[in-house]
Design brief:
The protein is of the alpha+beta class and 95 residues long. It is 36% helix and 37% strand. It contains three helices and four strands, in the order βαββααβ. A four-stranded antiparallel β-sheet has the order 2-3-1-4. The longest helix has 15 residues, at 16-30.
């Protein structure tokens, strides 16, 4: 199993609602993908300008296919325009 944590800092002046308006389609379509176990968007309790995507994939192949999916290729570049920064970490479950 592959776990992904994508931590996003929204640009100043970008609301969470604005970001979600674009992100919802990616979330809905990704959850339908083969190999997707979990795909959620979460807001930091202390600083609402930080958003995290928490993902679980059956394997690396499923994640690779996700990154080539039409909804990812079309919408994620637009989401990046709303971000100040992005930190992406991939993990494998050990126990």
């Amino acid at each position: 199993m592959i776990k992904v944590v994508c931590r996003i800092k929204l640009k100043e002046g970008v609301s969470v609602e604005e970001y979600l308006a674009l992100a919802k389609e990616v979330i809905i379509e990704t959850r339908k993908e083969k190999g997707c176990i979990t795909y959620t968007i979460n807001q930091d309790i202390e600083d609402p300008s930080f958003i995290s995507m928490l993902e679980e994939w059956e394997n690396q192949e499923s994640l690779d296919n996700h990154l080539k999916a039409k909804h990812v290729l079309e919408i994620v570049p637009e989401l990046r325009k709303l971000r100040e920064s992005t930190e992406l970490n991939l993990y494998k479950e050990l126990y």
